[in-house]
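Schema walk-through. Below, the input block comes first and the output block second. Nothing else is stored per chain. Lengths vary across the set, and this one has 428 residues.
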Amino acid sequence: MQISDNDVQNSDSGVQISDSRRSSLTALPGDDVQESAASLLELAAVDPIRLDEDRLAWLALVLSPGLGPKRIVDAVAQLDAPSQIFALPLTGLEALRFPAQAAQFVFDGKARVAAEQEWARVAAQGATIITYSCAEYPERLKEIYDPPPVLWVRGDVALLARPAIAVVGTRHPSPYGSGVAEMLSRDLAARRLLIVSGMARGIDSSAHRGALAARMPTVAVWGTGIDVVYPKENKKLAEEILATGGAIVSELPMGTFPAPQNFPRRNRILSGLSIAVLVVEASENSGTRVTARCAAEQNRDLYAVPGNVTSKGSWTPNTLIKQGAKLTATWEDVWEDLPSQVRLELEAEAPVESKSETTASLLPDPVLRPQESMVLEVLRSDASLQIDEILDLLETQLTSSEVFTALFELEMAGRVRSMPGKNYVRTM
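--- output ---
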């Protein structure tokens, strides 16, 4: 069924369907899903005004009660255009397998009002809404079983189409886990592989910081609205991600606060946006296992960093390795496994003359003063040392003031990281 230009009227709120046409529209039979999706993209390319109306329709459905991602995508695939949803009678909406509450919500116009209000909030934030039928919607995400119909995005939307790896792990990492996550993310980002993570405490934050250390953009997928920073202590990290040209993505409306059920759902997007998933540290019952399972279901490559067998944080990566995940110790372990087409694409983006400079800048080796060398020698990268322990180890060699000065200089140089409780760890 097609809607002619005579049936379309302009109004202050956008393009509307005439009353005569509205009364004649009924539910459409099930068309081929792929043909319907292709027709939506063709329509969007020739009619920008209709595209906005279509985006509004997707948004209205997402905001309707009782509708999940798969049901929304399947329903829209049966229509000539998403915007037709506003013109369907109640029986037509119910024929799309909408629950009674959702069908009534759309039919009464409440869904459209909610969508227009949400659109205004997004515009006020300078953010963007991408729907399933938009050209900017990442193709990899369409491959998963239940792709989100709408993505709220702050930052560079084009990043979502880039080859990416999701780096995930525990919220309570060891110094070794944090260091490895940051090192691998830094080295992979420097070679133009996009780092995607959830910006949670622990491994996620280390992954984003690694990409930022390489001065490359990174994408954070949130389990809250894009205007609700969680955890709050990562506000500065979120600002740095946007300032470096990265992006913040969510499938949840503005103002959505953290809820336990949102984060496992978010994990399917992490793996869906990526060509591979890297697990660093996670316990037996960690939510990271959800992401690993999603990766397997979505046919994504799975990598894992081995850990100490006596550490509970090593349970998930060590188990994944036993089950077939690739053991990962350096960026080369990931790089050599990438599809040749992806490698060529990434290598083409990195100018040859800058590669040696990038590598050199990532691994600085400045000349250290004798006191700094002595302090650095006693520190470990896999376990932190408390300041009293450091002073005891160097008691016969350095005074306390020399130790404090050396630690400060090493921290400023990025060779040492301070941790809560006056603990220090050597960076990788």
